[in-house]
Design a protein that fits this description.
aldehyde dehydrogenase (NAD+) activity, NAD-dependent epimerase/dehydratase domain-containing protein, Epimerase_deHydtase, NAD(P)-bd_dom_sf
Length: 312
């Protein structure tokens, strides 16, 4: 497991542990060389170091590649080298790589409802990097590795890391007073609740023998048809806790002014196009394979997220 300190990686690690898997993961700032905590084996190491990745993956059947540079920064320098290390380990162990995918891979020619076979012609730098990453994963299947990609909408959840919910809609660590809305009312948006994403990954891992060497799926998640369902759910949950937050438009003008000085805002601004047009990934392949994807009701998922962020 790479990226267990992050949102999706941590959630997948815990759910694999609960499903009876032995989970081993890397952590850069581990004080001791190894540590067994909360049922997970932690080893000191860095996903940028091939030796560390090869060592932690020794004897593993599955490698979850959920590691990303923090704050959306340094993608050009780190994303592909980390992926190459995971690929080397998967080939050595003949293991299955599991990748949390993104909608960044698709460009306007695939909108508004791309399926897994849609062309990948992204118009952003991060999108182009993600396409290269998946191309390398596909090529690795010719050398003994296997790959599962689960592509989902914007993550939210009680322990989410880099995501629009906690970085753009609300302010973590304080009672909720204001909600920012990045998109205009009427523009749909796709969301994915992290525990549901992780449960889906675990089910795909457990059924991996029935998959092609390179298998790609889309998660339906929560479709906000007019761009107001998520803010509406946040308001309902907040009011049940005695709060009455206001809704305001996200200050895109501020990201333009601050982008040269605040890298995270610059990276968020690059993805603005996903808030100006509806993009709903077709998840029929996943439904056909699993029968039904895990799906937590929106208000329940939002309440757990806000509580986890310290906003209630």
């Amino acid at each position: 497991m790479l990226g267990a300190s992050g949102g999706i990686g941590g959630e997948v690690a815990r759910q694999l542990r609960d499903a009876g898997w032995q989970v081993r993961t890397l952590k850069r700032d581990l004080a001791a060389g190894t540590e067994y905590r909360d049922g997970i084996h932690w080893r000191r190491g860095d996903a940028m170091n091939r030796h560390d990745v090869l060592e932690v993956a020794r004897g593993c059947q599955v490698i979850v590649h959920a590691v990303n540079p923090p704050g959306y920064r340094h993608w050009a320098q780190r994303v592909l080298p980390m992926a190459d290390n995971t690929i080397a380990a998967a080939i050595a162990e003949r293991a299955t790589i599991v990748l949390p995918g993104t909608v960044y891979n698709y460009g306007p020619d695939a909108f508004p409802e791309p399926n897994e076979d849609a062309p990948q012609h992204p118009q952003t730098r991060k999108g182009r990097i993600r396409v290269l990453l998946e191309q390398r994963l596909r090529e690795a299947t010719a050398h003994g590795a296997r790959v599962i990609v689960l592509r989902a909408g914007d993550f939210f959840g009680p322990r989410a890391g880099n995501n629009w919910f906690s970085q753009g809609l609300v302010r973590p660590g304080r009672p909720l007073r204001k909600i920012l809305q990045p998109g205009k009312p009427g523009v749909g948006h796709q969301w994915a609740y992290l525990p549901d994403v992780a449960r889906t990954m675990v089910r795909l891992i457990e059924q991996r023998a029935g998959l092609a060497p390179f298998a790609s799926f889309h998660l339906a998640g929560h479709w906000d048809a007019d761009g107001t369902a998520m803010t509406g759910a946040i308001c309902r949950v907040a009011r049940r806790h005695g709060l009455d937050p206001a809704i305001a438009a996200f200050p895109w003008w501020l990201t333009t002014l601050a982008a040269p000085f605040v890298p995270t805002l610059r990276e968020l601004r690059e993805m603005r196009y996903l808030w100006t047009r509806p993009v709903r990934m077709d998840a029929s392949r996943l439904a056909q394979f699993l029968g039904e994807e895990p799906h937590t009701p929106l208000d329940q998922a939002v309440e757990a997220t806000l509580a986890g962020l310290g906003c209630l």
